[in-house]
Design goal:
Layout: H1 2-30, E1 34-44, E2 48-50, H2 51-55, H3 68-71, E3 77-80, E4 85-88, E5 91-94, E6 98-105, E7 109-118, E8 131-136, E9 142-145, H4 148-160, E10 164-165, H5 167-170, E11 180-185, E12 191-196, E13 199-200, E14 204-205, H6 209-227
Helix pairs in contact: 4-6
């Protein structure tokens, strides 16, 4: 009888230990990592950026709340799954143009920042451009420029300009107001280059902006007079 009680106690203890281990397993698996999907940031290739530098321009896609303070957490380890995005401590550098994911990890949280990497300087091959269109930002009027000398002069001005990526301008978003939009085309109608107030896309600047804009305005006014 005594032996039977001992066996029952052993069985009970075994069952109890099994239940505890199962509960421990459930508790561990129930611990979930909180994911934050952050908004996109536009940066240039070959340039080193600090996480603290881009943190101020990032918000949570789901809630729209700023992520500045959360991303400055010293405990976050920043990594990349792409060899072309080099992460060193709290800095990163993208080797090539493209889209990347910058990942920040802590024990309980995971942050993902989408990066749109563009060229430091926009590519511009204007050697085969045949005509241009200029659109007024005030009333939407569009004129077509086909005169060879005018096209040569316009392309020469653009070729002389050294465009530089501007981080602040890029992450403000598209320009709200502008004077003229210029598109340059090949003979088959393929768009080769585009500028809005001398800015390719909306995130480059150049010291030649005034010269380009004045010439574009001149071409637009002359074309309106001829066709009007």
């Amino acid at each position: 009888m005594k032996v039977k009680k001992q066996k029952n106690v052993i069985v009970l203890m075994f069952a109890l230990s099994l239940v505890i281990s199962m509960l421990d397993g459930v508790d561990i698996s129930a611990k979930k990592i909180q994911d934050y999907h952050c908004s996109k940031v536009i940066v240039a290739n070959g340039t080193k950026y600090k996480i603290s530098q881009i943190a101020k321009d990032v918000h949570d896609i789901e809630t729209g709340k700023k992520m500045t303070q959360k991303l400055k957490n010293k405990k976050i380890k920043w990594v990349s799954e792409n060899k072309n995005l080099k992460v060193v401590g709290k800095t990163f550098t993208a080797k090539k143009i493209g889209s990347y994911k910058l990942i920040g990890i802590t024990k309980k949280k995971r942050y993902r920042i989408d990066l749109d990497v563009v060229s430091k300087n926009p590519k511009k091959d204007l050697s085969m451009v045949q005509y241009a269109t200029i659109q007024s930002g005030s009333d939407g009027t569009v004129v077509k420029i086909e005169e060879p000398e005018a096209i040569r002069n316009l392309c020469a001005l653009i070729n002389e300009a050294k465009f530089k990526f501007d981080y602040k301008q890029a992450n403000k978003g598209p320009m709200a107001g502008w004077n003229y939009s210029v598109k340059l085309f090949l003979s088959n109608g393929t768009e080769q280059f585009k500028m809005v107030d001398s800015k390719p896309k909306y995130y480059y600047i150049t010291s030649k902006a005034d010269e380009i804009n004045k010439y574009v305005e001149q071409l637009f006014i002359m074309s309106i007079k001829i066709t009007g």
